[in-house]
């Protein structure tokens, strides 16, 4: 039993009432609508059954390790194009996924994608510093855009990306896969409905050991920042949808154990998001340890929800008042995300991960770095 359980009002096992509530929540049909509705423009040719052709841009670990396999599981999308600067990958993945040569591009001839009727959506999976350029080029080619997180390097870039998509009549979504994970949908549902009362406590931790010291994630110009930009963003997202409020102020503290490896970017940051209701959500993100968890306490009956492996692609588990939420069916987050985006483009109904969502996170991230620069001072958002 960990200290958070011991801190509960009694050391008795969770009551049957608590277990029933956990079971009911886990089995309920939940729909995540997000915090910042953005009505999207449907494609004029879109029909309910349309499968959107998606081109992946940047064939790295996430694109080819997760997104390409997930695209084989989607109902509304097909992997129909590849964009890569590496000749060998264009050949290898072109063959593996049976992509015709006419749908394979490099970064120089990428803009010709505008003539390709088999590609409806461009999915930008490049280093963070390239997100804005390729989103804007894709939008100007008349393609809908999905861009990986963080949306841009700063709020100004996010605005340019949002504006470019708007000006070209295409949609912009951020690859926030956890909105489509059933455990996170419970968290968001509870935030929205307050059925267990308002959250009274929130703690999030997203840490992973980063390997290769020469990778772009350790270069400020390409990554924007370190752990906060890359994985702290999941804690920010979770706090926002768990609270169903926007933070009004932040504080942040940075710790470094390896000033050489993490010369340019943050290694470990602990930060606090202050919400209007008075709750201060505490988070830690780190590039130098492992551990993903989320714990939220609710005010009505002192219920407590905990997610383990909280921000991973797979193997998440949840407990409500210590009882395993074992009737939640895991889903492929990426496939669910892509299907939801396609449905949103068809219907024009927001699926909760618009460019505005990405911009809001960037605003919060900017405030966190401002706090770090000012020695941990409170920064109002
Ligand atoms: P990788 O380094 O594995 O892949 C990035 C790819 O971008 C490279 O393989 C390369 O592809 C292309 N690229 C073009 N120019 C450069 C350059 N100068 N330096 C390095 N790569 C370049 O990164 P990830 O796949 O891990 O991350 C890509 C994006 O996806 C990031 O924004 C990251 O935040 C996001 N991400 C999101 C996750 C999520 O869960 N939503 C999880 C992991 C990452 P090519 O050779 O084909 O040109």
Overview of the molecule:
There is one protein chain. By secondary structure, the chain is an alpha/beta fold. 33% of the residues lie in helices and 20% in strands. The protein contains eleven helices and 15 strands. The protein has helices spanning 3-6, 16-27, 61-71, 87-96, 131-140, 155-167, 182-193, 220-223, 227-243, 333-347, 355-373, and strands spanning 52-57, 77-83, 104-105, 121-124, 144-147, 172-174, 199-207, 249-255, 268-274, 280-286, 291-298, 304-308, 317-320, 323-324, 379-380. Strands 14-13-12-11-7-10-9-8-15 form a nine-stranded mixed beta sheet. It has a six-stranded parallel beta sheet with strand order 3-2-1-4-5-6, with helices on both faces. Strand 1 (52-57), helix 3 (61-71) and strand 2 (77-83) form a beta-alpha-beta unit. Helix 6 packs antiparallel against helix 11 (355-373), helix 7 (182-193) crosses helix 9 (227-243) and helix 9 (227-243) packs across helix 11. It is globular and about 60 Å long. The two termini are 38 Å apart. The model is unreliable at 1-23 and 26-47 (pLDDT under 50). The structure holds NADPH dihydro-nicotinamide-adenine-dinucleotide phosphate (NDP).
